[in-house]
Automatic annotation (TrEMBL):
Gene3D superfamilies: 3.30.465.10, 3.40.462.20. GO terms for molecular function: flavin adenine dinucleotide binding; oxidoreductase activity. Residues 154-210 form the Berberine/berberine-like domain. Keywords: FAD, Flavoprotein. It comes from Ficus carica. This is Berberine/berberine-like domain-containing protein.
Amino acid sequence: METEFPELGLQRHECFEMTWIESFLFHNFFRNGESLDVLLNRKSNLHLTSFKTKSDFVTEPIPDDVVERMLGRLYEEQVGRAWFELYPYGGKMSNISESKIAFPHRAGNLYMILYYVEWDQERENITESERHVRWVRRLYNYMTPYIAKNPRATYLNFRDLDIGVNDNNNNIERASIWGNKYFKNNFKRLVRVKTKFDPTNFFTYEQSIPPLHSY
């Protein structure tokens, strides 16, 4: 980090090495060094929050002034907790074909951005919750000129219902709106797989892939 990103001024004592399961405790505000046995307690006092996420893939460097304004928007978000996460791509990710598996975001992507805002469930009302959601939507709109286009791709595991949801008819044309963003050219292949193995659309949710004929 000192060699590649000296401008961060990161110190060794600010870094913590931990396993994945230990990171779960860390992100849920347990004390450092807390026993993993606490996860077996169903009445454990986990930090309960509501949250809204959106994501983008970046194919060209974002200008420095845009990054500064993007970071400045974090100060607009009051009461809630907001941040960005950048997931670097390249390397092995770029060596795998877009069509190899369902996940298509491969060569050409510099990194993925997660926009995240969360707030306390028990302390805020609907009006305040809507304010947090509007904030992340405005940020997402602001970033439009600087991210991947045609389609404006997004990551399935950061599910975003703003880009569309299934109606009762499970229309394929409608589903392609978000299907192409999540899966790009793999969406049509996934429709064929869905049609073969789940023709009655038993397994369904707001943004599931519909079969060619739903009953």
